[in-house]
Each structure stands twice: as C-alpha cells, then as structure tokens.
Amino acid sequence: MNKNNLSESDYISFLEKSNHNLIKQIENNKNYFNEYYNFHKKINYEKNFDIKYLLIALSGEIGEVANEFKKIERDDNNIISDSRKNNIILELGDVMWYYICICNKLNIPIEHILNKHIQKLKSYDDVQNLC
After folding, report:
1. Quick one: three-class SS letters along the chain?
2. Closest C-alpha to 126, from 26, 11, 47
3. Residue 103 in contact with residue 109, Cβ under 8 Å?
4. Alpha-carbon distance 12 to 15, whole Å?
5. Which of 37, 54, 33 is nearest to 100 (CA)?
6. Residue of 8, 18, 25, 31 whose CA lies nearest to 124
7. Contact at 8 Å (CB) between 104 and 44?
8. Averaged in consecutive runs of 10 residues, what is the pLDDT profile of the chain (131 residues)?
C-alpha cells in the first residue's frame, strides 16, 4: 500500500482498519504465541548469550527481512513471488526466535507483552472507535 496513491482520508481509513485487524489478530493468537514461548523456553537457547548479543542478532534478522523487500523492488519488479514470500516467512521466523529469546532472558511472558500492546493500541483515538 503506497500512501501516495491514496487520498488522506482513504489512507487514515486504511491505518484504522490495519490497527483494528492487528488487535483482533493478537487477541485471537495469544494461546499460539504462548505455546511457542513455552516451547522456546524449554530449548533455553538464550542461556548462553547476553542481552546485547540477542539484540544484535535480532537487528541482523530484521535486516534480512528488509533485504528481501529490497530484492523485491530491485529484482522482482515489486511483485512478491511465492519463493520470495517463503524467504520472508523464514526470516520473520528468525526475527520471532530472537524476540522470544529476549523475552525469555528478561523473564517477560509473551502474553504480558501482547496484553500491554493491546491496551496501548486501544488507547489510540483512531482505534477506540473500531473496537
């Protein structure tokens, strides 16, 4: 979605719907996130690394996601192929891995983060009308 192709009111509407969809998606997937968090906690990968390393690793993985989008623009004529989408999914999985490592390292349950984020989103004026 390119903001330049939309009127300001259409763009605001798009953002409002996106925030509403994000809230619903988070609410519907809390249990799945908790299962992943608990699975991850059993592996305890982060025990061998300090928080600085985990943050650098997370940043690197986010860069790899961005790199896939760069390739879409540079090489794929702005068309997301199935292959490129699969690469993005794999890289987002790596982002999630290090995100959960940081949560575990700080002993913060994913459900707590999701609940706080829902509260934050619902506090926005443009989202309150949608919930």
Report:
1. CCHHHCCHHHHHHHHHHHHHHHHHHHHHCHHHHHHHHHHHHHHCHHHHCCHHHHHHHHHHHHHHHHHHHHHHHHHCCCCCCHHHHHHHHHHHHHHHHHHHHHHHHCCCCHHHHHHHHHHHHHCCHHHHCCC
2. 11
3. yes
4. 5
5. 37
6. 18
7. yes
8. 55 59 66 75 85 97 97 95 95 92 89 87 75 59
Buried b (16+ CB within 10 A) or exposed e, 107-117: eeebeebbeee
Kindly report whether the global pTM for this prediction surpasses the value 0.85. no
First CA to last CA distance, the chain: 23
Domains, the chain: 11-128 (1.10.287.1080)
